[in-house]
Specification:
With about 375 residues, the chain is of the alpha/beta class. It contains twelve helices and 15 strands. Bound molecules: pyridoxal-5'-phosphate.
């Protein structure tokens, strides 16, 4: 069978280094797998050092971090939260966990992230309707910085706090400053497919010391300071284990290397697929922005080629190469069929024309060669 000719090339598999095992060994030797522990504290310190954030709380997932982050911003039942439509569903689900509802906004064509003009339009319209947004979520999709300067200016003008979903953007920068530190709360993910992984995990960063304490409190079942189990608030079981944090410590040592390799992979594809008619690369870095290029994405322009993403993807699959459509916009999801949406043409077109290519940092150039040949073969 054709698909068994070669080993499978995955989209973005975990890529472990050499030191993760040392941290794991130490935790097991010291019998410190729970609770909390030195790896957890160390992992949080590593993230603070790398990003420059004052505080970090390591959690069981990026989704948990978004949930607690929105709660810190005061989001609750009946509130509205502004959110890009073009993102993974985990950005918006926690809005609903809190009894609030999302209001979706289109992308701009350069960075593919939240459009500042549409944001202003939505902000003004919601306020006119008497529905002042409680918070704004910004996302740096595929690691690409959004137009931060323009977006933060609109948020400040309307005094709406910002949660920064940097789940895909660890290692990316804007005007030299690491992403994740621009919002009042920032969020990272260490899920298996991300640039670094703890197999599953997340982190919340903030400069507010009292919010750091509050997030830890909520993440450990909201235990009141009493000698017995007493609870005055609803809590969650959201802390990362000291074992997984050990993997995170080993991974953090590799971050700069991983960013370098992801960017090289993007450049490699650009160079080797340059001239394939109808195929182009995106998104584009905004002024002052540097992307970690988590995933390499291509667009297929239907005016120039009959090859569509839904023809190319199965074609690559027969050669045992995994590729994925871009995120399906949330305003097109059955789950959010009734949510308000401002604009929609840009992200809908990106979804129709885009495909993510294998971007794992452990990939060899020979594998990239195999992918490039498979792609050009389809045209
Ligand atoms: C992965 C991801 C999340 C969720 O992170 P998990 O750790 O998988 O819960 C949230 N937002 C975006 C944009 C993501 O890509």
């Amino acid at each position: 069978m054709r698909s068994q000719d070669h080993d499978r090339i995955y989209l973005s598999p975990p890529h472990l280094g050499r030191h993760e095992l040392n941290y794991l060994h130490k935790a097991i030797e010291d019998n410190w797998v729970a609770p909390a522990g030195p790896n957890l504290t160390g992992f949080e310190r590593d993230i603070c050092e790398y990003t420059g954030a004052a505080h970090c709380v390591a959690l069981s997932s990026g989704t948990a971090a978004i949930h607690l982050g929105l709660k810190l911003l005061g989001v609750g039942p009946g509130d509205e939260v502004l959110c890009p439509s073009f993102t993974f569903v985990a950005t918006a689900n926690p809005i609903v966990y809190l009894g609030a509802s999302p209001v979706f906004i289109d992308s701009e064509a350069e960075t593919w992230n939240l459009c500042p003009e549409r944001l202003r339009e939505a902000m003004e319209d919601r306020i006119r309707l008497g529905r002042r947004p409680k918070a704004l979520i910004i996302v740096h999709l595929y690691g690409m910085p959004c137009k931060l300067r323009e977006i933060l200016a609109v948020a400040a003008e309307f005094c709406v706090p910002v949660l920064e979903d940097a789940a895909e953007a660890l290692g990316s920068r804007y005007e030299g400053q690491p992403l994740g530190t621009f919002g009042t709360v920032g969020v990272f993910s260490f899920n298996g497919n991300k640039i670094l992984t703890t197999s599953g995990g997340g982190a919340l960063v903030t400069n507010h010391a009292d919010w750091d304490q509050k997030a830890r409190f909520w993440a450990t079942q909201a235990k009141d300071p009493a000698p017995y189990y007493q609870h005055s608030e609803i809590g969650y079981n959201y802390r990362l284990s000291n074992l997984l944090a050990g993997i995170g410590r080993g991974q953090m040592e590799l971050l700069e290397d991983r960013v370098k390799r992801r960017r090289e992979i993007y450049g490699w594809y650009q160079q080797h697929l340059n001239g394939v008619s109808g195929l182009s690369f995106g998104p584009t870095e905004p002024t002052g922005g540097r992307s970690n290029r988590w995933l390499t994405c291509v667009l297929l322009n239907p005016a120039e080629t009959t090859v569509t993403p839904e023809r190319l993807r199965p074609h690559l699959e027969t050669r045992n190469i995994e590729s994925r459509p871009l995120w399906k916009p949330l305003h097109l999801q059955p789950l959010f069929a009734n949510a308000p949406m401002y604009g929609g043409e840009v992200c809908t077109t990106l979804f129709e024309q885009g495909l993510c290519l294998p971007s794992g940092t452990a990939m060899q150039d020979s594998e990239l060669q195999r992918i490039a040949e498979a792609i050009t073969g389809a045209f």
